[in-house]
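To whoever is on call:

I kicked off a structure prediction for a single chain this morning and the downstream step that reads the tokens threw a length-mismatch warning. I double-checked the sequence; it's 278 residues and nothing unusual in it as far as I can see. Pasting both halves so you can look.
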Amino acid sequence: MSMNAAILQRSSLRKYGAVFSQGIQSAMEYRADFLFGLFNGCFSVFIQFFLWTAIYSGSQENNLYGYSYPQMVVYVIMAGIMLRIVSIDFHYDIAFDIKQGTLNRFLTQPISYFPYRVFDFIGRKIFQLGFIIVISAGVLIFTHFVFSAEFTLSNILFAVLVLPLSLFLNCMLFYCISMTAFWMTEAWGVFDGMGVVSTILSGGLFPLSVFGETAQEIFKYMPFQYVIYFPLRIICGNAQKEDIVFGICAQLIWILLLYILAKLLWRAGMKKYIAAGG
């Protein structure tokens, strides 16, 4: 490596390290918002819990949609937690930058927009992840003793392994969606609509097995289920080794494809960007 390349590399590390630190400070500043959001999410979890309890109580089957009652309890609670882990909000910031012209400063300064958003996002997530991991451990222990839910150490380790990929996959998915702001003056409706679709198709409300085998086969080739449904199947013990290998490969392939798509959309969007304001 030449001396100039080494200097540029150190400069980039300092730059994006500062962005990462900025993200952490932002998360700490708005930690009350995160805690209130987590508290609000408990209501949907409670509704799901009582709903599935009533469904299993009125059913003659011990297993519904491939899940026993303890597994479904774990799924419902952990799905609510996973929604917080993988939640994305920077697409609103991107749309604001494009609409208001504040994107200009990234075009005139020696910093790339995509790495800036990624490092800022990771910085904001670090505080949340530490807190949520503690809650998740408490949930698994609670459901084990109260509902006799069974877990294996290997399944938990595999779930921890795929979790960063799930987070980055959702990050890339919504980064691509944010590019619609180049062609739409008001993209908020698209964002909200995709948020609802993503929550359902990712398994954030209930297992995708509810939709039936045909739908599951279709979902297998879409990116959404690898965000929440896939890691939760591992935790619940419903994923075989070949399913885990297939799921990890699917996550990596979709991350690569979405990255390429994001680059193409960015280039096309820059041709439409008028750089007004800023």
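Update from on-call: the warning came from a stale cache, not from the record. Cleared it. Sanity check on the structure: The beta strands are 63-64, 67-68.
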